[in-house]
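Input structure tokens:
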């Protein structure tokens, strides 16, 4: 079995200014990880960071197994949901750039005034579009079990089944 480490495990150090993505990759190598998960939220400037990160991965001899994005489809505003889909499309392109085969995504979370049923419809709609785009580029999506809409296994299974039906 190969073990990877998520950069999220080092979020406190990154946000404290003690580590950047390149430093995380060096740390992952140091602790003996076989690969890494990178996240969109840790880019300072994607265009500037991207080549440095790819070089650091090559130098460390570590693959990026997963590229992860933070998205939330539980929003009644179609324009805002379209922006959330763009985050996943960005993640798909990043995964391709780093030779990862998986993009980790979120469903969304309940907020004041949003019903569970409405949110589920928006999530399925957004993840269906994302899954179609990912499939066309040979990328798989992994749904994070997180929040009130996809925090339990039965909820994740329900979302996956609905996306597959669409």
């Amino acid at each position: 079995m190969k073990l990877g480490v998520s950069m999220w495990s080092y979020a406190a150090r990154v946000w404290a200014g003690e580590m950047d993505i390149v430093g995380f990759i060096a740390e992952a190598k140091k602790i003996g990880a076989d690969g890494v998960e990178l996240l969109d939220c840790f880019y300072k400037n994607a265009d500037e960071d991207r080549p440095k990160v790819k070089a650091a991965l090559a130098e460390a001899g570590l693959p990026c197994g997963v590229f992860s994005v933070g998205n939330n489809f539980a929003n009644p505003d179609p324009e805002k949901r379209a922006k959330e889909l763009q985050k996943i499309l960005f993640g798909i392109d990043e995964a391709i750039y780093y030779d990862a085969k998986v993009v980790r995504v979120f469903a969304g979370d309940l907020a004041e005034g949003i019903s569970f049923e409405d949110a589920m419809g928006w999530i399925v709609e957004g993840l269906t579009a994302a899954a179609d785009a990912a499939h066309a580029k040979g990328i798989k999506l992994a749904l994070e079990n997180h929040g009130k809409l996809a925090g339990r296994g039965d909820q994740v299974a329900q979302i996956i089944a609905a996306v597959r039906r669409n």
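The chain has a mean pLDDT of 97. The first strand starts at residue 4 and ends at 6.
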